[in-house]
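Cont'd.
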Amino acid sequence: MNSRKVKTWTWIHKWSSLVCTVFMLLLCLTGLPLIFHHEIGHLLGTEVEVPDLPKDTPRASLDKVMQVAQALHPGKVPMFASHEIDDDRFWYVTLGDTPTSEVGNKTVAVDARSAAVLAQPKFDEGFMYIMLKLHVDLFAGLPGKLFLGLMGLLLLLAIVSGVVLYAPFMRKLEFGAVRQSRPRARWLDLHNLLGIVTLVWAFTVGATGMINTWADLVIKYWQYDQLSALLAPYQGQKPPARLASVQQAASSATALAPDMKMAFIAFPGTTFSSPHHYTVFLRGNEPFNSRLLKPVLVDAGTNALTASPPLPWYLTALLVSQPLHFGDYGGMPMQILWALLDIATIVVLGSGLYLWIKRRNPAAKPTTTTHVPEPRALGRKAPDGAA
Amino acid sequence: MNALTNSFWRLWRWPLMLGLLSTSGLLSALVSDGWGDWWAWLSLGLPVAVMAWFAWVPRKPDGR
């Protein structure tokens, strides 16, 4: 690689990282507790504790489950009934002021066998909620998500340019050499070592995180792309005034694919359904297809089966990207590895920042005022005195 | 093997090997809950161990 190319790639690496580093540090730090959110939930007592009943205990009717949940919040309408991926012993029932409301929603955990209320978890307060919101959208809704997605894109650019620069920087060094001579050499070597070793993981988590920021848009597109055709016969009709049995809707959906399990049911009018349908989302039993969903639309007025459109590629991509981002698909050892790799990434980000600050000092001409590295210097308007 | 491929190999064999290992681990746990999880722990654990080894285990001044 000639020196001009190195200079170009150095410029790309420097600026793509500088712009996203602060946000990436935030995402790495807030992501750390999120890896263990179930375990932390158990410790904080916010996780739903389900009584042990014999495996063959008959399951309560979903109509009864919904009735029990709605009785706690009269005036609210049903939005979703969902199972945890690995626990179908209870339902999370989500209720809201309207089917699409985003604030003031209530969640009730109802035992799927006895229809007893197990808990009323508050998903909109507490430490984990703050971590989640900072991680997902910076408390700024869709614009916040898309902004973080853009920062993710810059991270990917920083990773790619970092790999390109690995060669010229490491030409004279053995793999893994960490020179102890000067702090700057030591941190440069650590930056290169940790960066190149975490490369695949960081790229995967960065890319899948970016994909996840588009989830809302992807689901909206799915409605437009697939549901609108199915809804043509309903043109001009009002949504059903009285909803038919949700249990019957669920039963006819599961009868369609007896080897699949229910993941969640989207009630009429929610973003995952249409105004006229219950949409029952089924998941497979195998490790891989348990991550994929099969939507079944059941008429919410008549309980007639409307359609089961195959999952389009963009929803498949979104669903597969989720475990690859969360690290929740290989048990506790994988969660621990996820955390260690996350910490290694924090060191890469921190050392990169350190190297940039240290690089500016010797470059500063005596005529300029004493250079003080300030957070402000991370902004896009910082003078380009480093190269 | 000429000098160019030789130096390429010297530079990239470790990153390539660890990268392929990580990729296989990220995917194996997706498709299998038995061996797939075990392979993921091993193949993602090794890069973590490599980082820890080079970052913390003191080396002789000649760098070997």
